[in-house]
Amino acid sequence: MTHAYGEIVQTNLGTGIKDSKGREIGFIVALVDNGTDFRALVQNARRIKGEWQEFGVRQSSKSYRSQAEATRCGFAIANQRIANIK
């Protein structure tokens, strides 16, 4: 998806764990690339009726020197959060 800020790639990661209402808990990893600034953010999410939806306080993105670094750090943060809830 292209946004005013740049190209946005979004990946949904499920945990296989359900909340008290039966919704799967997961995370949305969003990577933003405008050619000079590379950002990653990890947002809490729930799968509701098969669709991932953001949940909780909106997370702010962090800037990285390269897209590779943003990707590596974004997925590392998401995997750490998944490990913390399992």
Explain how this protein is built.
The protein is built from 1 helix and 6 strands, in the order E-E-E-E-E-E-H. Helix content is 22%, strand content 50%. It is of the alpha+beta class and 86 residues long. The model has no long low-confidence stretch (mean pLDDT 89).
Main traits of this protein?
alpha+beta; 6-stranded antiparallel β-sheet; 6 strands; single chain; 86 residues
Mean pLDDT: 89
Order of helices and strands: EEEEEEH
What gross morphology would you assign?
elongated
Helix/strand-derived category reads alpha+beta
The total count of strands amounts to 6
Report the helical percentage: 10-25%
Strand content: over 45%
Low-confidence stretches: none
Count of discrete alpha- or pi-helical segments spanning 4 or more residues: 1
What's the helix and strand layout?
Elements: E1 2-3, E2 6-18, E3 24-33, E4 38-48, E5 51-54, E6 62-64, H1 67-85
Antiparallel strand pairs: 1-2, 2-3, 3-4, 4-5, 4-6
